[in-house]
Backbone:
């Protein structure tokens, strides 16, 4: 009897862990490549959704804990990898990495039974944030974006123009006060009068991108609450 209870408990724990880990899904990019993402689904569906984009050289797994927090808040989260671990020298080729985000957004749009129409956001860390702006500028289906440790110029990829093209849709800028370039980029991006609403969240933790989120849990809560307000 005791052994049976032990086995049942172990199975329940394993089941909960598997559920918390989400599941891997695949979808196709415009150029035919098969992409994969880590999907954490909200319990009550259809639900709002966000695409989560990592820093250069970091995997989508960096977002796993945050993605679970989104799902717990009834927002489906899809974390993706960047196309490579090193950036191409040509800024135009680097900017085209945003096409993988577009494919992820299209995948979510293709699931109307699970994802609310018009309630999709994108959050990107460092280079992932620059690519999120580029994707959202040309995709009216993206309702809100969050940039974690943004860069005005990331290896030749500038985002002032794309952020203006993004228009009046809301954007959240998140940075550490000790991350000098991200902090300056945040201030300058927020001051452009031609843009729509731009919210800022500051941290006193000295870290960058997804590392900042992992070390400052208050920022994670603010990020999720912000998307809840923007995506409904």
Residues:
């Amino acid at each position: 009897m005791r052994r049976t209870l032990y086995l049942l408990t172990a199975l329940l724990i394993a089941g909960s862990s598997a559920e918390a880990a989400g599941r891997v899904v695949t979808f196709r990019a415009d150029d035919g490549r098969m992409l994969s993402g880590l999907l954490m689904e909200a319990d009550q569906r259809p639900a709002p959704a966000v695409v989560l984009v990592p820093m250069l050289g970091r995997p989508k797994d960096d977002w796993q804990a945050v993605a679970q927090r989104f799902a717990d808040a009834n927002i489906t989260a899809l974390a993706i990898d960047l196309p490579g671990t090193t950036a191409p020298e040509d800024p135009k080729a680097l900017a085209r990495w945003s096409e993988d985000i577009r494919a992820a957004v299209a995948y979510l749009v293709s699931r109307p039974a699970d994802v609310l129409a018009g309630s999709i956001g994108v959050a990107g860390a460092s280079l992932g944030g620059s690519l999120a702006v580029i994707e959202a500028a040309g995709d009216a289906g993206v309702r809100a974006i969050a940039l974690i440790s943004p860069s005005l110029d990331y290896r030749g990829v500038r985002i002032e123009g794309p952020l203006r093209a993004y228009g009046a849709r809301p954007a959240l800028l998140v940075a550490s006060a000790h991350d000098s370039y991200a902090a300056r980029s945040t201030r300058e991006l927020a001051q452009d009068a031609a843009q729509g609403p731009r919210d800022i969240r500051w941290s006193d933790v000295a870290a960058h991108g997804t590392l900042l989120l992992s070390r400052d849990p208050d920022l994670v809560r603010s990020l999720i609450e912000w998307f809840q307000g923007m995506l409904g």
